[in-house]
Design goal:
By secondary structure, the protein is an alpha+beta fold. It has helices at residues 2-9, 12-15, 40-43, 84-95, 102-108, 148-159, 171-179, 243-252; strands at residues 67-68, 111-112, 117-119, 122-125, 133-134, 163-165, 184-189, 198-203, 206-211, 214-222, 226-231, 236-242, 257-260. 25% of the residues lie in helices and 23% in strands. The strands form four sheets. Strands 1, 6, 7, 10, 11, 12 and 13 form a seven-stranded antiparallel β-sheet that branches.
């Protein structure tokens, strides 16, 4: 598995396209430790990978059987090859009545400036996506992603206390938000299947564990069997995805989600 990961790592256009590179299908999608002979103490050392669930919201109303929000699509390409998160946020902000250009958000989002260090094609050190965007968002240099907390902080610049971080909430809570008229930025994978390959590196003493095919989209609708997302990578508006597929890939990426009220 480790050799396969190293081989894939050499193909940067596929590996760290951060926003949407598809992964081959497999039933096994749990991250594998870098060294399977690590002691239990080492395996329990501080890690920063998929964020720990942060918030669960309660609702006392039944979720309607279907809902759809008309949110204009914004494509991340060609300017932001790795910019699915800020592009999804730009769509959310436009729906909220605050049209902000994706390039403005790309400049404003917090960055983790730690440079990439590789050895024999393997990443040894790099940034932490939970702290800020890792690498280059444009794709001119190697880049990866940013997670929910830095994006939440950016959203608060525009919407203040209306900002809601739903990371850790139930899948049904995401649907409740859409039913209430609020789209949700969610982290999943490019093909909406659970991750099949993981990469490991150090960032300021933390072990970062990430899937190669991380992606972010805007959840805008649902019906009985499917969810609908605005996909900034394919520029498809209201792209249909089976609930089971979206839910599984979203959970594998740490149940990350942000929206507003």
């Amino acid at each position: 598995m480790r050799q396969k990961a190293i081989t894939i790592l050499a193909a940067w256009g596929i590996l760290l396209a951060g926003c949407g590179a598809a992964a081959p299908e497999t039933e096994k999608f749990q991250p594998v430790p870098r060294n399977e002979q690590q002691s239990s103490q080492e395996q329990n050392s501080e890690q920063s990978a998929i964020p720990v669930p942060r918030l669960t919201l309660q609702t006392n109303t039944a979720t309607p059987s279907k809902a759809m929000l008309d949110v204009p699509i914004i494509a991340q390409n060609p300017e932001l090859k790795n910019g699915c998160e800020v592009t999804s946020l730009a769509m959310l902000l436009r729906h909220s009545g605050h049209p902000v250009d994706k390039m403005t958000l790309a400049r404003q989002v917090k960055k983790d400036p730690e440079p990439i260090v590789q050895q024999n094609g393997d990443i040894q050190k790099w940034g932490d996506p939970a702290e800020g965007f890792v690498g280059d968002m444009t794709g001119k240099k190697k880049g990866f992603a940013v997670y929910n907390k830095p994006l939440e902080e950016l959203l608060r610049r525009y919407l203040g206390e209306r900002t809601v971080n739903l990371t850790g909430a139930s899948y049904e809570t995401l649907l409740d938000s859409v039913a209430a008229g609020f789209p949700v930025v969610i982290w999943a994978t490019g093909d909406f299947t659970p991750p099949t390959e993981w990469e490991y590196w150090d960032s300021d003493g933390k072990q970062i564990v990430v899937p190669f095919d991380e992606h972010a989209v805007l959840l805008v609708g649902y019906d009985k069997t499917h969810a609908y997302v605005n996909d900034p990578l394919t520029a498809r508006k209201q792209r249909r995805v089976a609930h089971s597929a979206l839910k599984n890939s979203w959970e594998a990426l740490g149940k990350q989600a942000i929206t507003y009220r």
